[in-house]
Amino acid sequence: MRKGYYRFSIQRIKRILISSFMCGFMLFLLHPFFAHADDRKSTIKPEISYLIATPGEVSIEKVISGDEDFQFKRVKKNIPNFGIEKNEVWLKVEALIPDLSKEIFLEVAFPTLDTVDFYQVGRVENIHYRSGDHFKFSQRPFNYRNFLFPIDQNQINGNRLSVYLRINSSGSILVPIKIDELKNFQVAFQLDNMIYGIYYGIMIVMMLYNFFLALSTNNKSYFFYIAIIFANLITISSLNGHAAQYIWGDFPWWTNYVIIFGIGLWILSTNLFAFSFLKLSGIKSIPRTNFYILGIIGFLLLSSIFYIPYRHTIYPSNLLLIVNCLSLFFSGLYFMKKKVKQSGIFTLAWFMYLLGVSLYSLRNLGALPINTLTTNVLEFGSVAEVVLLSLALGRRYKDLETEKNEEQQRTLAALNEKQALIENQNLTLEDKIRERTFQLEQKQEQVSLQNEELQAQQEILAQQNRKLNQAKSIIEEQNLRLKVNNEELERKVKDRTAKLITSNSQLAANLQSLEQYAHVTAHNLRGPIARLHGLINLIGLENKISDPHLLDVISKLKESVLELDLVVHDMNAILVLQNQTELPKDIIFLENSMIRAKNLLKKEIAEKDATISYNFTACQSIYSHQDFINSIFYSLLSNAIKYSHPNRTPIISVNCDTQGLNNQLLLTFQDNGIGINLSKYGNKIFDMYARFHDHVGGKGLGLFIVKTQLEKLGGKIRVESVVGEGTTFKILIPNYQ
Questions:
Q1: Which of 3, 80, 638, 689 is the most exposed place for a label (fewest CB within 10 A)?
Q2: Residue 241 — left, alpha, or beta (φ > 0 → left; ψ -120 to 50 → alpha)?
């Protein structure tokens, strides 16, 4: 195996492992927020039995009669899961109701069941409700994404509730059943809507963000990526019942077929995206053929809703979904081996979605149990897929811009080389003309000196004159050709220059649009974040919510919102700093800036018993921007105290000197702290959010802001450090006075 390829493979594997760990950690953090209705505790424990029968063979009267041909079997699992069942499923639900004075409801938490008949057997009469996604949503007893049926307490014999459910479905039959009080359902509804609102918000924001990028870059990959997000949205919202609840609930035909349509659209758009993103036009390979075939299959699947019954397409569509994910994943591995740029992130995105689709499909087929992970893994996988593909698109666009700039530089260099060659040719021709002219002059002098021989040599001279005239004609013809060539080259140079100017203008406009978009995003996010923070505070009032689990969820959500608010705040601060062009300047006494920084850090200095010495004899003042100088002193002193050595007292010295003809100030900040490993982090010290020590809190913005402020002042900064001994920052600042 080649050494370069081995190094490439190790680096790719490391990046994939790190990205997988980050995605897994994100899913672990989000896991508590997507608690399914099955995980909520209830004081009423139902006893469930089942009966499988041919459709139309069993009626409620036969079931109640106790006929031996219709004996129910006890459900062994907590949640009945029958997979894909063509027959009719009857469930007998019995429960002991401790308090008949409270409103009691029964919930079936699987929104894609075709028909659900609810029968409450009572002492006076039997109560019947019919629901399912084959009926209009407005006909349901309650406006909720799952099937919710009221229990009539007056019809209960004693405290023993007896309910029968008849279920038919062309897809999987999962029946998560819960019996509880109305107030408990209302609390669960609020949490459910809030969490899914965040998920749909993330998907919609990503779709709109990439829509604007697609308009500004005119890149087809972005449009296919938007189609992927849209397909995920309509499919997952239909599977969760939200689409039927809020959008097309009164169109049962579309409520059933939209899942098939969404899966077909997803398969079609993912293969179009892969073909465009990996630049496979004109390249023959097995993945390219797979993309063509699966794209056609996806189109046929989404169009099949008009001529193939739902029950015949639901199982093949789920199978095709997994096959498509496997194709994309192994194609990504193939292009990783071919060293295609961004193929690693591309592969990781499809791996995360493949994991989600596989676990969700196996749960629906009855191979896996129903729990929080298998219920919400599709949402987790779709979010990871959308985020990773967005990252890959951004990096791919940056690579394309770099390649375009390099191509322009190569073209310009070639034009310059051609121009130099033409100039050299012109100089050579001029030298030849001058040489020929000199020879003619010599011959004319010889003719004047040899007048005595003129008569005898007239014929020779006439012959020579004819040759000279021919040479002159040839020279004139060559000059004319050179002139035409020069004019043609000048025209080509002008045309190429105009094209380069147009390309540069487009690049500048694109960069300006991206900067404006980043600025608008950073500012416009503040309002939604503030409203979200306010809503969380309203929800989390301790005197209204007693559920400790819910309080813990709200507390963690508050922390996430605060962290997001800090990131947006930092983004605004950096944008303001980078957009500052005119800086007011004044005479600044360095000792005053030092005293101000020590006063602000008085508490930290006392806690560490730090010793700070300074000497500004050589340069007592500077003509510069007051706020920047104060901020630089504060940030560097704060870093020196924060990263002091745990086994010795901090000693910090600050000195000043002049340097160069313009009396530039050289400020030196030296400490005896823990130091920085420059061989490992030397090229990342001044990056945004760069942190190298985990035992001390911070955001990693201090040195980035110091470097940005110095660049605004026309200054520079460099660092010298030895691990375990200390660090020295040397700052060179222009003095404008």
A1: 3
A2: left
The answer for residues whose C-beta is within 8 angstroms of residue 54's C-beta and 6 or more apart is 87, 88
**Cα separation, 106 vs 617, whole angstroms:** 83
Show the tokens assigned to 241. 């019942």
User: DSSP class of residue 201?
Assistant: H
DSSP codes of every residue in 236-248 = HHHHTTHHHHHTS
Instruction: Find the DSSP H helices in 525-611.
Output: 526-539, 548-579, 590-600, 602-608
Please choose, from the candidates 607, 639, 643, the residue with its C-alpha nearest in 3D space to the C-alpha of residue 704: 639
Q: What angle do CA 161, 51, 181 make, to 5 degrees?
A: 30
pLDDT band at 267 (very low <50, low <70, confident <90, very high): confident
CB 479, CB 415: distance < 8 Å = no
Q: Which residues contact 68 (CB under 8 A, 6 or more apart)?
A: none
pTM, two decimal places: 0.49
Task: Name the β-bridge partners of 91.
Answer: 50, 165
Helix (H, G, I), strand (E, B) or coil at 131: strand
Q: Which of helix, strand or coil describes residue 116?
A: strand
DSSP 8-state secondary structure symbol assigned to residue 250: T
The answer to whether the beta carbons of residues 48 and 93 sit under 8 Å apart is yes
Angle subtended at Cα 586 by Cα 582 and Cα 592, rounded to the nearest 5 degrees: 125
Contacts of residue 736, defined as CB under 8 A and 6 or more positions apart, other chains included, come to: 585, 623, 624
693-715 pLDDT tens trace: 665 555 667 788 888 888 888 88
pLDDT tens for 452-495 read 776 767 777 677 777 778 877 887 887 788 788 778 878 877 87
Q: How many CA atoms lie within 13 A of 559 on its CB side?
A: 7
Helix (H) and strand (E) counts for the chain? 18, 18
User: Tens digit of pLDDT for each residue in 544-563?
Assistant: 666 777 777 777 777 666 65
296: CB partners within 8 A, 6+ apart = none
Q: To the nearest whole number, what is the mean pLDDT of the chain?
A: 76
**Number of other CB atoms surrounding residue 676 within 10 Å:** 20
Mean pLDDT of 650-660: 87
Strands 160-168 and 147-151: unpaired
Of the pLDDT bands very low, low, confident and very high (cuts 50, 70, 90), residue 653 is: very high
Question: At 689, is the pLDDT very low, low, confident or very high (cuts 50, 70, 90)?
Answer: low
Neighbours of 600 (CB within 10 A): 15
Handedness of CA 20, 21, 22, 24 (dihedral sign): positive
